[in-house]
Design a protein that fits this description.
Layout: E1 2-7, H1 16-27, E2 31-36, H2 42-52, E3 57-62, H3 64-75, E4 85-90, H4 96-100, H5 107-120, E5 123-132, E6 139-140, E7 143-146, H6 148-161, H7 168-181, E8 190-193, E9 200-203, E10 205-209, E11 215-217, E12 220-222, E13 234-239, H8 244-254, E14 267-273, E15 275-288, E16 291-311
Parallel strand pairs: 1-2, 1-3, 3-4
Antiparallel strand pairs: 5-6, 5-16, 7-10, 7-15, 8-9, 8-15, 10-13, 11-12, 13-14, 15-16
Helix pairs in contact: 1-5, 2-3, 6-7
GO molecular function: kinase activity
Family: Belongs to the diacylglycerol/lipid kinase family.
Protein name: Diacylglycerol/lipid kinase family protein
Length: 312
């Protein structure tokens, strides 16, 4: 099998030595070409080119941002070309999508699991989410957020450019600072429209998920929509109240073993939806898969079943 291995050299949880070990292990089983990313969206370009050049498999080593780029590259390749299968190895600080697939968080152990799956024909088809608006149209693998969490992602990206290392502690610290000092996140300016449901307005924060968990607090999964699955449509979560008591109670349930119940005080959830629209009275911060996409007044969401053929 001919495979292209896309490596993000800035991956935070791997070293050059561990990357060499992974390359040697994969090359012992596959006809492997290796390329490193050099700039934002480079992995997307490389994945699209892999389809054009007839590769049967694309493998990536990086975080959720690298995964998102590869997925969007594969799914925007010309439709008349056979689409390569995809195997994702963890190299970031969270690796939400990869862990949701059930792969080990350690990149070398994940490599072993992927190689075993390849030998045994262990492929699966997963559904994805897709956004569609005037500014951008992209696929996402596990989540999209409007409001508070997107503001957190924006600030983390800003601090990473200044040399800070992305970590769960940094995300949680910034989230707490914004909760206390961020005026915009305390504005109930969002509206959710789902076919067949009443329009819901005056929402403080909205989250769309394609699987569970939404993210991790260290090793602890954070589950606002624990029923969300790759095999189903999209789930949504929205805060209808934003104060210390309510938010603390909701967050406590999110990190419990069962995750947040479908209904409760201060929030709403929707399960297994095929499409819906989120609007804002004025532009609000927006992110997908932990990547800040700027400010939006409206985003349309769709569920795309069986969008991607994954290994492992």
């Amino acid at each position: 099998m001919r495979a292209l291995f896309i490596v993000n050299p800035q991956a935070t949880t791997t070293s050059p030595r561990s990357r060499d070990v992974i390359v040697r292990a994969i090359a012992s089983d596959l006809a492997l070409d290796v390329v490193q990313t050099e700039y934002r969206d480079h992995a997307k370009e490389l994945a699209r080119q892999a389809a054009r050049e007839g590769y049967e498999l694309v493998i990536s080593l990086g975080g959720d941002g690298t995964v998102n780029e590869v997925v969007n590259g594969l799914l925007t390749a010309p439709e008349d070309l056979p689409r390569p299968a995809y195997a994702a190895l963890p190299g970031g600080s969270a690796n939400v999508f990869i862990r949701a697939l059930g792969l080990p968080a350690d990149p070398i152990e994940a490599t072993g699991a992927v190689l075993e799956a390849l030998r045994n024909g262990g492929y699966r088809e997963v559904g994805l989410g897709q956004i569609d608006d005037a500014a951008d149209g992209r696929y996402f693998t596990f989540c999209a957020g409007f409001g508070w969490d997107a503001e957190v992602v924006r600030e983390v990206e800003r601090q990473r450019r200044r040399g800070r290392r992305a970590s769960p502690a940094l995300y949680m610290s910034i989230a707490a600072q914004l909760f206390v000092k961020g005026r915009e996140i305390h504005e109930p300016s969002l509206t959710l429209e789902i076919p067949g449901y009443d329009v819901v307005s005056d929402l403080y924060f909205a989250l769309v998920t394609n699987t569970t968990p939404w993210t991790y607090a260290g090793t602890v999964p954070v589950q606002p929509t624990p029923r969300s699955r790759f095999q189903l449509g999209l789930d949504a979560f929205a805060l209808t109240r934003l104060n210390t008591v309510t938010t603390t109670a909701v967050l406590r349930k999110m990190v419990s073993h069962r995750g947040l119940p479908p209904s409760g005080r201060g929030y709403l959830t929707w399960h297994d939806q095929q499409e819906f629209v989120l609007r804002a009275r004025r532009p609000r911060a927006f992110q997908i898969d932990g990547e800040y996409l700027g400010r939006r007044k409206q985003v349309n969401f769709r569920s795309i079943p069986k969008a991607l053929r994954m290994v492992g």
